[in-house]
Amino acid sequence: MKKLLLTFSLLATVMMARALTATVYVEAEEAPFLYGWFTVNNKETKINGAWPGTQMTETITKTDLKGVSHTFWCKTFTIDATSFNIIFNNGQDGVNKAQTGNISDISSDRYFTYNGKTEYTDITEDFGVEIPDVDIQSIALLSDLNEWNGMAQLFTEVEHNAKYTFNLSLTDEQIEEIEGYYRFQLMVNSSAYLGWLTEGLAKDDPNGWLDQDLAVGGGANIGLDVETAGVKDFLFTVTFAGGKDIYQGWTLRVEQGTAGVDAIRTNAEKSGQRYNLAGQRVGNDFRGIAVQNGRKVVIK
């Protein structure tokens, strides 16, 4: 499969890991299997054995802030990383296999309930333990054209823990290969997959090219109808508003006017706006060759 052509500059230094000790507590009728891992400098390390992990054996009784007693299965990890990720599961394969989704960005003691199948609840704050804000370490773009490899295409960090950008350029051959529809996912901290709801966006807005049936944290593919839109180049901007939940507080933009003359023609004809030859919108103080209403103009 052809590799995706892209332009990006990674402005982050190699992340230095620091030791972390944290305990996972889970209330469940039967001892669950616990699978865990962390990623540092694009290297994934398993911390409780290969999948499905190791069945929990140690128990402890704790009382929550309301005075209610709980018996937990527990496991303490000491790792050389700032956070780790876990999955609770029943240790089985085939039709009886059941597991939670990724529980990401654990950086302190955490308390959960688990129903033995797919559902869990985070009850950490019931025990007076404050969940720290998420520390965004990396954001990657995955698609067919990079074989869904999240280690290959990292966003450029523009503002620490806040705003990230990514330039994407598709060739005609790649557009033909993907049948005119570019599908992708975003992965945060090498563990959390993100999708977006885009209902109600205007079709002359580049974000209107996104699929309509996506939800944050759902892990579904995001889609750009590049053939219909006539676009080969994109500038993605991903912003994180902060918070305790790695799946919440995100916005995604496909910036308007990053694609050159042909790609911006549809929007330019409707708006009368001006763009430089790189497809970037320009203001009234711009001087030089620009594109307006689908034509090149010289602004002096």
Helix-strand blueprint:
Layout: E1 6-7, E2 19-27, E3 33-40, E4 43-46, E5 54-55, E6 59-63, E7 69-80, E8 84-89, E9 103-106, E10 110-114, E11 120-122, E12 139-143, E13 156-159, E14 163-169, H1 172-177, E15 182-188, E16 192-194, E17 222-224, H2 226-229, E18 233-240, E19 250-254, H3 261-271, E20 274-275, E21 288-292, E22 295-299
Parallel strand pairs: 2-10
Antiparallel strand pairs: 1-14, 2-7, 3-4, 3-5, 3-8, 6-7, 8-9, 10-11, 12-15, 13-14, 14-18, 15-16, 15-17, 18-19, 20-21, 21-22
Q: Which keywords apply here?
A:
3 helices; 300 residues; five-stranded antiparallel β-sheet; mainly beta; disordered N terminus
Task: Provide structural commentary.
The chain is mainly beta. The chain is built from three helices and 22 strands. The chain has helices at residues 172-177, 226-229, 261-271; strands at residues 6-7, 19-27, 33-40, 43-46, 54-55, 59-63, 69-80, 84-89, 103-106, 110-114, 120-122, 139-143, 156-159, 163-169, 182-188, 192-194, 222-224, 233-240, 250-254, 274-275, 288-292, 295-299. Strands 1, 13, 14, 18 and 19 form a five-stranded antiparallel sheet that branches. It has a five-stranded mixed sheet with strand order 6-7-2-10-11, with no helix packed on it. The longest helix is centred in the last third of the chain and has 11 residues, at 261-271. The radius of gyration is 23 Å and the shape is elongated. The termini are far apart.
